[in-house]
Structures are given as structure tokens and as C-alpha cells.
Write a structure and sequence with these properties.
Blueprint (H helix, E strand, L loop, with lengths): L2 H32 L5 H7 L2 E4 L8 E6 L2 E7 L2 H6 L32 E5 L10 E3 L14 E3 L6 E2 L20 E5 L2 E4 L7
Antiparallel strand pairs: 1-9, 2-3, 3-4, 5-6, 6-7, 8-9
């Protein structure tokens, strides 16, 4: 073998070794890099949730989960809507100035459409689950109770728009998640597109 042949062979072997090592490094890096991607479960937890409200009877509540949190969708009756202004002077934050909600829910009924309320079902005091208590004047809540949400853990009370009453442990109103209407009977919770 001549010196030129050895040099060419050496260059070929060096290049082949470098290419093989590069391919191996890429093959080893692919699973490592793909582990940084969120899992399918994590992606599903953050994804918007579609809710069909066409079969939700007036006066009923539907509970769904979005991002691991319970969401209450309430189909308010005309009587329920009439109760909203009744106790405004007893509320801690009647205008929802200190509460979490999108701009389109910053109104008396705290919703895009008055008949459907969408709130997180998590008490703002310690994260308990307030219960829907829509009956008027039950014995355990008193003759002045006009319906709303009651947290049995520490006694926090919220009206039919999720606004907290003054003098209870909960500091703010129930949060309103971002949502929009896909059509007249479908809500998309987690998609904030303003009034649709």
C-alpha cells in the first residue's frame, strides 16, 4: 500500500466513525428531548372542555372538570336572576372588583348570557367545594337566603352569581374561568374569546 492509499483509507475510516457516532448521538438524544414534551394526560388537562347545555334544565347545575378543577354550569331561572340584585348591600364585592373573571363577565350576573353561570366550584377561603343550595329560605341557612352556594367546611356563602357575602371567611367571589359559546347550546370552557 502506498502512502496515498493509506491516507485515503484513514480519511474514510475517520469520516465513517464520525458519521456513525453522530447518528448514535442523535438516536440517544431523541428520547431525552421528547421527554420534555408534556404527556397526553397533561395536555388533556389544559385543553378546553366542550359542554352541551341544551339538556340542562332551568334551575339545575352541571359539574365538569377543567384543568383538574371543578366547574359549575348553572342554568338560572327567571326567579334566580331576579334574586341577584336583592342582596347587593350584603355582598363583600358586589361589583367583582377584587375577583377573578374575564372582562366579559364583569357585570351583575357575572356571565356572557344571564341565564348560564359558569364558575369554579372551589371556595376562595381554603379550596373546599361549595355546594349548590338553590332553595330559598332553608331552615339551616335562614329566612333571608335567596339561593346560591354554601361551603359547609367554614360557612362561606355565595349568591347565585358566585359573589361572596360579607362576614364569611371567603375573601373573594368564586372565579369565572375563560369560556365562550360555540353555538346556542355549547360552551367551550378554557377558550377565552370574548363575547361570541
Amino acid at each position: 500500500m502506498t502512502r496515498g492509499e493509506r491516507l485515503t483509507r484513514r480519511h474514510f475510516l475517520t469520516a465513517a466513525t464520525a458519521v456513525t457516532g453522530g447518528v448514535g448521538a442523535v438516536a440517544a438524544a431523541v428520547p431525552f428531548v421528547s421527554s420534555f414534551r408534556p404527556s397526553a394526560r397533561a395536555q388533556a388537562l389544559g385543553a378546553p372542555v366542550e359542554v352541551d347545555v341544551s339538556k340542562l334544565e332551568p334551575g339545575a347545575v352541571l359539574k365538569v372538570e377543567w384543568r383538574g378543577r371543578p366547574i359549575y354550569v348553572v342554568h338560572r331561572t327567571e326567579e334566580m336572576l331576579g334574586m341577584l340584585g336583592r342582596d347587593a348591600d350584603l355582598l363583600a364585592d358586589p361589583d367583582s372588583a377584587e375577583s377573578i373573571q374575564p372582562g366579559y363577565a364583569r357585570n351583575d350576573h357575572r356571565s356572557v348570557q344571564p341565564r348560564f353561570l359558569v364558575v369554579e366550584g372551589v371556595c376562595t377561603h381554603l379550596g373546599c367545594a361549595p355546594l349548590p343550595r338553590f332553595e330559598v329560605a332553608p331552615a339551616d341557612l335562614g329566612a333571608d337566603w335567596g339561593g346560591g352556594f354554601y361551603c359547609p367546611c367554614h360557612g362561606s356563602t355565595f349568591d347565585l352569581a358566585g359573589r361572596v357575602f360579607a362576614g364569611v371567611p371567603a375573601p373573594t367571589n368564586l372565579p369565572v374561568p375563560p369560556y365562550r359559546y360555540v353555538n346556542d347550546s355549547t360552551l367551550l370552557i378554557g377558550a377565552d374569546a370574548g363575547i361570541a
